[in-house]
Amino acid sequence: MHLIRGLHNLAHSACAPLAQGCVLTIGNFDGVHRGHQRVLAALNDARTRLGLPSVVMLFEPHPVEFFAPQQAPVRLMNLREKLLALRPCGVDYVLMVRFDAAFAALSADAFVREILHQQLHTRFVSVGDDFRFGAGRKGDFTLLQRMGRQLGFAVTHQPTFVWAGERVSSTRIRQALAAADLPLAEQLLGRPFAFTGRVIHGQKRGRKLGFPTLNINPKRPRLPVQGVFAVRVDIEETGEWNLPAVANVGVRPTVDGLRPSVEVHVFDWAKMVYGAHITVKLTDFIRPERRFDTLAALTAQIEEDARQARARLGLN
User: Fold this and answer.
1) What are the extents of the domains in the chain?
2) pLDDT at residue 283 above 90?
3) Which of 305, 11, 21 is nearest to 148 (CA)?
4) Residue 235 predicted with pLDDT over 50
5) Region 2-160: CATH code
6) pLDDT over 90 (residue 227)
7) 101-131 pLDDT, tens per residue?
8) 256 has a pLDDT exceeding 80
């Protein structure tokens, strides 16, 4: 799978196969949830049927982040996580389009003619049934389909994917995570909610309290979950998978935390893995994050959290 950073890089030699045409889908794919997976499955079918490379077009930043940053929802995934989730879906190219003032001003007609037709040589487009595009969001599925007939590419939409009587969406998953409803989030995603990050140096407070932790930089200003969780951890560099652990996700109020932090205590395990990429998979919610008056009270609670996490993970 190739990542293309910007429309100007379509001229790169690695993109030469696109000159013969491509099959395309467009969206933000935050979470790559079960609804997204349906769209990607249709794209992969067209890829096989037409013998053309597949392209997923993403936008950075998200349009809502561009137009109303204070109202933008928390992301379920950073870019690296999204690429990892797209890789097994049969995607050949991910085209990351810079969403700026010039792109926002592009009319729906120009977007289809200049980008989909002239630059990407699109032969097939699969989108969600609520897809909107172009300046003022004036483009819709009907317009895309009509222009596709004029320009020689097919357009199909995937019906809304419904689970437990409601539409599967990134918003619904965010709501489930905010309510610490991990089972519902897993059902909507098709897998446990997880995030990745690099192990960084912390303040070593956990070690002093008898619970050494891996401090994680999740590469985002905030996460859609907060609290203490039983988790499973994958460590790429050491080739260790599903290590049982307890994690605190939040801002560490007892020690005056000022930024989002992730601290993971892996049970019965002690290695120095600074700089390693790890994946943290949330298994069970234990409690909300809260402030303690003393470090002694915090230590007692950490011991109880560890006991509960071990039980939830089947270690007791």
Assistant:
1) 2-160, 192-312
2) yes
3) 21
4) yes
5) 3.40.50.620
6) yes
7) 999 999 999 999 999 999 999 999 998 777 8
8) no
Phi, psi of 36 (to 5 degrees): -60, -40
The top-level CATH class assigned to 192-312 is: mainly beta
CB 108 within 8 A of CB 133: yes
pLDDT-derived band at 308 (thresholds 50, 70, 90) equals very high
Is the confidence at residue 253, as pLDDT, over 50? no
